[in-house]
Design brief:
The chain is built from 4 helices and 7 strands. Helix 2 packs antiparallel against helix 4 and helix 3 crosses helix 4. The chain has 2 domains: about 70 residues, no CATH class; about 80 residues, no CATH class.
Length: about 150
């Protein structure tokens, strides 16, 4: 059976799947057979600015910056769980995109979930550093989110 239409993939900005502002797309080509396997939204400067503005709003309104470490950990672990739940689909896409064998693609996908789990465990760690001082002084550092970067 020949696929006559390509799957299309949009940008995700502010939690929504959206077209690129200039409606530009590109085809991703499988190195296995040089055939197009998908049409991808091509982000431009305006799209980057929209994504940064959305991230800034999420930081400023506290959705992420004021989230408790426990909640942040839960969300990141859920992301890893979703990757594991969709391992077959994601492995197939990676195989089409990169040309690597499915076994390697599956290992890569599962390793990405492991990495997210690791960083999720760090999200729940809140610690600072105490620096010895002369006299009756206390000097310490606390790590806090500083905002959006792109």
């Amino acid at each position: 059976m020949v696929q006559t239409t390509l799957d299309s993939y949009k940008l995700v900005i502010d939690g929504q799947q959206v077209d690129a502002a200039e409606e530009a797309t590109f085809e991703t080509i499988s190195p296995a057979n040089n055939e197009a396997v998908g049409r991808i939204a091509k982000a431009g400067i305006e799209d980057v600015n929209r994504a940064v503005a959305a991230a800034r709003r999420a930081f400023d309104d506290g959705r992420w910056s004021k989230m408790t470490p426990l909640e942040r950990t839960k969300r990141m672990r859920r992301m890893a769980d979703i990757i594991r739940e969709r391992v077959d689909e994601l492995s197939r896409l990676e195989t089409l995109n990169s040309g690597k064998i499915i076994v390697e693609a599956r290992a890569d996908v599962l390793n990405s979930a492991i990495c997210i789990d690791y960083y999720a465990s760090l999200a729940g760690q809140t610690w600072g550093e105490t620096i010895p001082m002369n006299g009756p002084l206390l000097d310490y550092t606390v790590r806090e989110p500083i905002g959006v970067c792109a």
